[in-house]
Automatic annotation (TrEMBL):
Pfam families: Glyoxalase_6. Keywords: Dioxygenase, Oxidoreductase. The keyword Transcription regulation does not apply. InterPro entries: Glyas_Bleomycin-R_OHBP_Dase, Glyoxalase_6, VOC_core. CDD domains: VOC (cd06587). This is Catechol 2,3-dioxygenase.
Amino acid sequence: MMRLTSTVLGTPEPRKLARFYQALLGWPLGADDPDWVTLRPEGGGPGLSFQREEDHLPPSWPAHPGDQQMMLHLDIEADDLAEAAAQAEAAGAQLAAFQPQEHVRVYLDPAGHPFCLWTNP
């Protein structure tokens, strides 16, 4: 038997990035050391982990030939897209220049990872 426990994001500053996602999701910290920090939802299920990568290169969004490619991104559903966008920006997210869909907002987290806030129309 196997089960997914976490998605791991590389970053030069694991604690900083964990605090950012904690502000968005409200999940409590689990492990917390300089090289490895975890967030897990209180009700259980897969969480997020943050691993120190000194040579982290943020992906480009959208990527062009020769750019650092995005390996994955997080989709975060929101009840109210405008409210979620304001919360993300207050926590330190940057709105991406390219927005591919009407009911989705692509943001870059403090380490440059793209993530999507979305809502059902």
